[in-house]
Automatic annotation (TrEMBL):
This is Deoxyuridine 5'-triphosphate nucleotidohydrolase. The lineage of its organism: Bacteria, Pseudomonadati, Pseudomonadota, Alphaproteobacteria, Hyphomicrobiales. The gene is dut. It comes from Xanthobacter autotrophicus (strain ATCC BAA-1158 / Py2). Residues 18-150 form the dUTPase-like domain. Transmembrane segments: none annotated. Its cofactor is Mg(2+). This enzyme is involved in nucleotide metabolism: it produces dUMP, the immediate precursor of thymidine nucleotides and it decreases the intracellular concentration of dUTP so that uracil cannot be incorporated into DNA.
Amino acid sequence: MSRPSVRIQRLPHGEGLPLPAYATEGAAGLDLSSALPEETPLILLPGAFAAVPTGFAIALPEGFEAQVRPRSGLARKHGVSVLNTPGTIDWDYRGELMVLLINHGPEPFTVTRGMRIAQMVVAPVTQIMLEESGDLSETARGSGGFGSTGFGATFLKK
Ligand SMILES: O=c1ccn([C@H]2C[C@H](O)[C@@H](COP(=O)(O)OP(=O)(O)OP(=O)(O)O)O2)c(=O)[nH]1
């Protein structure tokens, strides 16, 4: 399958780090590593969050976005996640890819240089044109939401 090609720029403090990469043939996300200085790891106390640099910037093609998502292993083992998940990387952003890590776990968590802290999923995105209107098309749901269909098993009415 052909893959869109995306330019990536290594920033000075990303020197020596591996490029973001798919860990397996079928991985949806490229793993992002921490570009924190070797000598100053970050200690995230329980409940704390911080923006962690990755050492790279990318130029997504127009019509694409990237989502910064947690790694389930870090979440399961340590309660560490991405605060704004999924973080949105806009196609016109040329700054450093940052990961807003949060420690939901009960223990302090240390982030070291090179640690794979999140994953980045690239996906097509559609921009829309809003048309202001006095009324909207009718549907069976109407304005029902926030649990309006209940919480038990649902069966389609024939
Ligand atoms: O987890 C994230 C989220 C965002 N960004 C970068 C890329 C994105 O294109 C830019 C702006 O993000 P967003 O639109 O979510 O932030 P905002 O608070 O709306 O800021 P802005 O006014 O700059 O758009 O910040 C990251 O590096 N990591």
